[in-house]
Design a protein that fits this description.
- The protein has 1003 residues and is mainly beta.
- The protein has a domain of 518 residues: 7 Propeller (Methylamine Dehydrogenase, Chain H), CATH 2.130.10.
- The chain is built from 8 helices and 62 strands.
- The chain has a 4-stranded antiparallel sheet with strand order 1-62-61-60, with no helix packed on it. Strands 2-3-4-5 form a 4-stranded antiparallel sheet, with no helix packed on it.
- The longest helix is centred in the middle third of the chain and has 17 residues.
- The radius of gyration is 31 Å and the shape is elongated.
């Protein structure tokens, strides 16, 4: 039985303020992060530091907003299937609003099977999605305020009871804010909604999903703004205090104002919400990008007291009613905190009398505006009272996110969220994220003027208590940040698509006051089309290039020291060798040059230490691994000191210099080699200094060092560049494709072309001089794929596929006595050229071993297998004949590659094919007979075109022939997963910004 298991996903977070949300539920399934990546949603587990699943394609454009529908009630969770993290909502640039449900059991499975159960729509991109749990009927409340453990936020403002009905608020660039009623009990058993249509018309009041019950998911309220006040953010919260239960809907707008609406949601089951505009909060001078509600912790105990006075007076006699704190983040570089409360009729009358006394005393006060009239929805002459609590100034660029710290604390350290208690200090704390590359944690000053929360006519003094962030210019700022369920970890997503994670756990009485935050490794990935992928010759690491102008190196961290946490093990990004100014189009990891491998240069043991990349420029660039990377790679293999590979890598690291690295000049595109002053510690125990006590940004620079655990984003962005050793000039157009010979002596490259002259393939001598050897004509348009025959074939042959619908074969005119991969005195020449497709070709690749076959694929939705006939084994091909054509695919086939190993049963060839719609399938056969062996599940596949397929050398075993005599040695990861399982490893790169590694089991 053949199967393919997803082992690793690397995908960056979309560049949107509300694109990520951290679930705060306890128990199995809780504590996960959902984030938008391209047009899908990825589910990320911070405890394991890995993406566990993507939900599959549903949106037709990038996801811009994600929100969890959370539960903190064990009884209701049991009714929903016994787990947490079962519901979430997403909004996209296509205007769609989707409600997702997890259908597997989170207590026993990690499959994460998500289905869309309801759909809504806006006429323009969705800017924010937030959710609020309906209370049992929405009538007069017995409780005065929400539970302190439920801290609403703009991304997920949820207060849970047994009703199972939620309100969702969505803001959109079509100048509308819509409120939706979702009955989860009615939606859970439903089948997935039909595929989305191209229409962007807003839904009717009868409901957006015709398959759902009439009242299961429907729009119950819509408000419209002017174009200059386009909604950019939204937040929902229950208004505390005695009296009718009312929801406060806050809308942040592009004109800098925050509009508050009071909503009576008691009749939502009938499809309507009675709402009124209650207030407009003015003060910001630019877009309000985020809003977050929390209860005013200073009066929560009074508000929850069943014996509290109806007039809202506190025990100390002050005229404070239970209220909410609303934080707003704006592009005017400030954040503001507003207090929102219910002012009862007696307070309104008292305030009017006081105003009349003042007016009688001061003539100019007679010109003041009259007080606002009582609210129709609050009754009894009450109205909504608002005032500015604090103006937070400290950022130097746009403030894009605001999040309140939960007022709870775990009874244990780390990520264990199963047990919680109230924090001893109930002070509210606010975290803001800015494009100035910093996060600031604000706390009210104990010595500030006025009480916490402010009195009438007074405001609290809020101070910057802790500053987090990154000093590297490559970060380019943070879009959003969030706390975990217990407020002991902070997760932020940045412009580069990476997550930054800091923890604040107090261990053995250390870290008094909780002011020290430690960075940890977190999920990261590309944020644009991933165009290419190439494996190290030993299968230890995978190199990918993207249109986000970076190359990234992924490796399986097995751990080299005893104190490595379990969350550090598995596939991780180990380096970011190139940060460029142009989109990366192609990469090729260069195997060690067989001519240079001897006792003093154990290149074969080290694997690839050089790679070549081409971008949207005319120059090829050559990079060489620095010493710190080689040392870190040795640490990642495990069994330090027992493996010949580890010893070889450590020796190579010392030879290259463990304190060597590279840096990118501010106005340059070339990585310049550097060496740390005074050297660097090979252990690399802590390359990142902890934050200073006063929270300033003057931290020491991160220098290249050998690491003993996977690097966090701060190290990846600053200290893992590879020095550029050579530029190769010759092409007249932007580079398109590059390939390296398995002997490490030749490199072939081709560029974008509109003529035969520009389409010629350039051959380069890999080594110290990197001189151009010659050009190979044949193609008339872009060459889209280059592939040298494999190491087991015993022949020299270069396969080239072109957009002109032809494939071409090149071979040496006179095979050299020096071995394979040599240019020779007479060079190479075109030996065969055949038309391989009715439309443009996209990819082609050789079969392994002695098969003497190759496959091609293209826009005509077909994969063809070709036989190469020779009169004498190893000689120049005589005839190229089509051996088989696979069944027509549903969309264009954009990538195809053969596995380096045959199947164990029957010795058949294995061929992987990727399509334009993101599908990945594996076929087995030989000659004219081919059958499909496995098709990757839709949730595990890409959601856009597969750009590249790369099989892991040696089937992912990582073992070489020379290791058979060394029982202790293991010069590579034992398998793709690092768990000892069997299977072949195959990596795919997609236009959906993701890199995926599968473990394929074929009989």
């Amino acid at each position: 039985m053949a199967r393919a298991e997803l082992e690793y996903v690397s995908a960056g977070c979309n560049r949107s303020v509300h694109a990520a949300a951290w679930n705060r539920e306890r128990g199995p399934g809780g504590g996960l992060v959902a984030y938008g990546t391209h047009s899908t949603v990825a589910v990320y587990d911070p405890a394991a530091a890995r993406v566990v699943r993507t939900v599959g394609k549903a949106h037709d454009a990038p996801v811009t907003a994600v929100s969890w529908l959370e539960s903190d009630d064990d009884a209701s969770a049991a009714a929903d299937g016994g787990g947490r993290g079962l519901w979430m909502a997403s909004g996209g640039s296509d205007g769609a609003v989707l409600l997702w449900h997890r259908v597997d059991d989170p207590r026993v499975s990690t499959a994460h099977e998500w289905v869309v159960v309801a759909r809504g729509a806006h006429g323009a991109p969705v800017t924010d999605v937030c959710a609020l749990e309906m209370r049992g009927g929405g009538g007069t409340r017995d409780d005065a305020s929400p539970s302190p453990s439920s801290s609403p936020s703009s991304s997920s403002a949820c207060i849970r009871d047994s009703s199972g009905v939620y309100l969702l608020a969505t803001a959109s660039q079509d100048c509308t804010v819509r409120m939706w009623r979702a009955d989860l009990a009615a939606l859970a058993p439903r089948h997935p909604a039909p595929p989305p249509t191209a229409s962007t018309d807003p839904p009717s009041d009868s409901g957006p999903n015709s398959d759902a019950p009439h009242s299961a998911f429907r729009c119950v309220w819509t408000t419209t703004t002017q174009r200059k006040a386009t909604p950019t953010s939204a937040a929902l919260a229950w208004l505390p205090g005695a009296g009718p239960a009312r929801v406060v809907a806050a809308v942040g707008c592009a004109d800098g104002n925050v509009r508050l609406h009071l909503c009576d949601v008691s009749a939502t089951e009938h499809g309507c919400v009675d709402a009124e505009h209650a207030a407009t909060l003015e003060g910001h001078s630019d877009w309000v990008r985020d809003l977050a509600f929390t209860e005013d912790a200073s009066d929560a105990s009074d508000a929850n007291d069943a014996n509290a006075e109806v007039d809202g007076s506190n025990d100390d006699g002050s005229d404070r009613s239970p209220g909410l704190l609303l934080a707003s983040a704006s592009q005017d570089r400030t954040a503001r905190i507003w207090r929102v409360s219910r002012k009862d009729g007696d307070e309104v009358a008292k305030g009017a009398a006081d105003a009349a006394d003042v007016t009688a005393s001061f003539a100019f006060m007679r010109l003041a505006a009259p007080p606002k009239p009582p609210s129709r929805l609050l009754g009894g002459g009450a109205r909504l009272a608002t005032h500015l609590e604090a103006l937070l100034q400290g950022h130097d660029d746009w403030v894009l996110s605001a999040a309140w710290r939960p007022n709870i604390a775990p009874t244990g350290g780390g990520f264990d969220q199963s047990r919680k208690t109230r924090r001893s200090n109930p002070r509210p704390e606010l975290l803001t994220a800015s494009m100035d590359r910093s996060l600031i944690l604000w706390t009210p000053s104990a010595s500030g003027a006025g009480e916490l929360g402010g009195g009438a006519g007074g405001s609290t003094v809020w101070m910057a208590d802790v500053s987090l962030g990154e000093a590297a210019a490559s970060c380019l700022g943070f879009y959003g940040a969030a706390f975990d369920a217990v407020g002991k970890s902070v997760l932020a997503h940045s412009h580069g698509g990476a997550f930054h994670l800091w923890t604040n756990a107090e261990v053995d009485g250390s870290n008094p006051g909780g002011r020290e935050w430690t960075p940890r490794a977190a999920c990261t990935g590309h944020v644009a089309d991933v165009t290419c992928a190439s494996w190290d010759s030993r299968g230890r690491w995978l190199l990918t290039g993207s249109r986000d102008m970076t190359t990234r190196l992924h490796a399986n961290w097995n751990g080299g020291v005893d104190d490595v946490d379990d969350c550090d093990r598995g596939w991780r990004q180990l380096a970011r060798p190139q940060v460029h100014g142009h989109a990366v189009a192609c990469v090729a990891a260069l195997p060690p040059n067989e001519c240079e491998v001897d006792g003093s240069n154990p290149g074969r043991e080290c694997g690839s230490i050089v790679f070549v990349s081409g971008s949207d420029e005319k120059t090829l660039r050559v990079f060489e691994a620095p010493g710190p990377f080689l040392g870190t790679l040795a640490k990642s293999l495990g069994k330090s000191g027992k493996s010949r590979a580890v010893a070889a890598l450590e020796a190579a690291a010392v030879k290259a210099g463990v304190d060597a690295g590279a840096e990118l000049p501010a106005l340059g595109l070339s990585n310049k080699a550097t060496r740390a002053e005074g050297g660097a510690d090979i252990a690399g125990s802590d390359p990142i200094p902890p934050p200073t006590e006063d929270g300033d940004e003057n931290v020491g620079s991160v220098v290249p060092a050998v690491l003993t655990r996977p690097p966090p984003e701060e190290v990846l962005a600053q200290a893992t560049l590879w020095p550029e050793t050579r530029k190769l000039y010759g092409h007249g157009n932007d580079l398109a494709v590059v390939a390296a010979h398995h002997a490490g002596r030749l490199v072939a490259s081709a560029s974008v072309a509109q003529s035969a002259a520009a389409a010629a393939i350039w051959m380069w001598a890999a080594g110290e001089d990197w001189r151009p050897l010659g050009k190979l004509p044949g193609a008339t348009l872009d060459v889209v794929a280059l592939d040298f025959a494999g190491p087991c074939s015993g022949r020299d042959c270069l396969l080239a596929a072109s957009r002109d619908r032809h494939v071409a074969l090149y071979a040496p005119v006179n095979p050299s006595s020096q071995g394979l991969g040599v240019w020779g005195d007479a060079g190479w020449t075109l030996v065969a050229r055949v038309k391989a497709s009715a439309k443009a070709l996209y990819d082609a690749g050789w079969a392994p071993g002695d098969a003497d076959a190759f496959a091609s694929c293209g826009r005509d939705r077909r994969v063809r297998v070709w036989n190469v006939n020779r009169q004498v084994a190893g000689s120049i091909p005589d005839v190229v004949e089509e051996a088989a054509t696979l069944p027509v695919f549903e969309s264009a086939v954009t990538a195809c590659r053969f596995s380096p190993e045959r199947t164990t049963k029957g010795g058949l060839l294995s061929l992987a094919a990727g399509t334009e719609d993101g599908g990945v399938s594996l076929w087995v056969g030989e000659g004219a007979t081919w059958t499909i062996a496995v098709r990757v599940a839709a949730a595990d596949a890409h959601v856009c075109a597969v750009r590249a397929i790369a099989w892991r050398p040696d089937g992912g075993s990582g073992r070489g022939d020379d290791d058979e005599e060394d029982d202790e040695g293991d010069d590579g990861p034992s398998d793709v997963s690092g768990t000892g399982g069997a299977g072949l490893g195959v990596a795919t790169a997609g236009a959906d910004h993701s890199v995926r590694i599968y473990r394929v089991m074929l009989e």
